Amino acid sequence: MIISDLSLHHFRNYQELHLDLDPNLNIFVGQNAQGKTNIAESIFFLALTRSHRTHTDKDLITWGEKEMRVSAHVLKKNMTIPLEVSLTTKGRIAKANHLKENRLADYIGNLNVIMFAPEDLAIIKGAPSIRRRFMDIEIGQIYPVYLHDLMSYNKTLKERNSYLKFDLHKIDLHFLDVLDDQLVSYGTKVMAHRQKFVDNLLTISTKLHDKLSHGKEKLVITYAQNVKQDFAEALRNARQNDLFRKQTSVGPHRDDLQFVVNDIDIANFGSQGQQRTTALSIKLAEIDLVFQETGEYPILLLDDVMSELDNQRQLDLLSLVIGKTQTFITTTTLDHLKHLPENLTVFQVSDGEILKQD
Question: Which among 9, 115, 169, 301 counts the fewest CB atoms within 10 Å?
């Protein structure tokens, strides 16, 4: 999978931009707040129709403008597919091969991206909601049906929680049974997808972590499923508590992941080095997992992360991805980048202007 060119229209600090891209390695160099991270964000947005940095759509639109658009041509299996995602006064619109998708969930999967940024350490040591979001993003790119099941689950969960807030004498227990049946139907599918994802991720990441730690560390990833028994039974057992607390206390909306290195829970007791290596192992494992499931390697976005890695980790990272994925690196300087291959393109970024370096 290769992005041959990228066009931005009123995206962040870019009024108009068109870039022809290197099929191997693209490096965007510039000081902070010049627009280099906006390039990585635009590719992420094109793939997932959302930003990894903000939940507010208007933040993505150039100041003073009302609409924005990101488009590109993507080479997949010897086919070139034009993709476009825009934010307009009518909402978010996604097109693949010039055809508008009625549901965004049907569009996602046309372009697979793996993002690695400094904040990804939060996957290891952050709140459970961050790890659930990580699973949702990655599984959704590989298995589009997962997004349908997840959206249906979340819609039913919201409806159930709203109903639980009624006065007790107004609650119809038979209607609550109907909501429970729907929640179980969708939630069981969500948990099955997550378990499969974690099992596959563990298989690949264990080998990568062993290589990155030079045989010194063993990584174990556990899917900490909130439901420890039959989901329907768990809801029945929790009903009185749910009625009292007026919220749904069991289900995949409370799932988590646990990362253990050499029998140590590294979220709470691991060193920063162990946390970084684990985050790197997971991101690299995702690349192979996407290929395993789709037959295409994803796009790799390394946003201001190389300076966080020592020379050995940089070397390990680049040796594992160069020649395999089209890679985008954003950085403030080339000075700390070692062992770069010859087949690359460097772009200088300054105040929303991008120049290709000869």
Answer: 169
Q: Does 314 count as an annotated binding residue? A: no
267 annotated as ligand-binding: no
Which helix (H) or strand (E) segment holds residue 84: the answer is strand 79-88
Per the annotation, does 33 bind a ligand? yes
| 32 is known to lie in a ligand binding site | yes
Residue 226's domain comprises 120-294
Please write the tens of the pLDDT for every residue from 107-153: 999 999 999 888 888 899 999 999 999 999 999 999 889 999 999 99
Same domain, 253 and 332: no
Q: Give 241's contacts (C-beta < 8 A, 6+ positions apart).
A: 249
What's the rounded Cα separation, in Å, for the pair 150 and 143?
11
34 in a labelled binding site:
yes
CATH number of residue 155's parent domain: 1.20.1050.90
Dig out the tokens for 5 from the structure. Answer: 């060119």
Q: Is 30 annotated as a binding residue?
A: yes
Radius of gyration, CA atoms only, the chain = 22
250 & 171 share domain: yes
CB 26 within 8 A of CB 34: no
The residue from 294, 323, 342 where one domain ends is 294
pLDDT tens per residue across span 265-313: 999 998 888 898 899 899 999 999 999 998 999 999 999 887 777 777 7
Residue 163 and residue 289 in one domain:
yes
200 assigned ligand-binding residue:
no
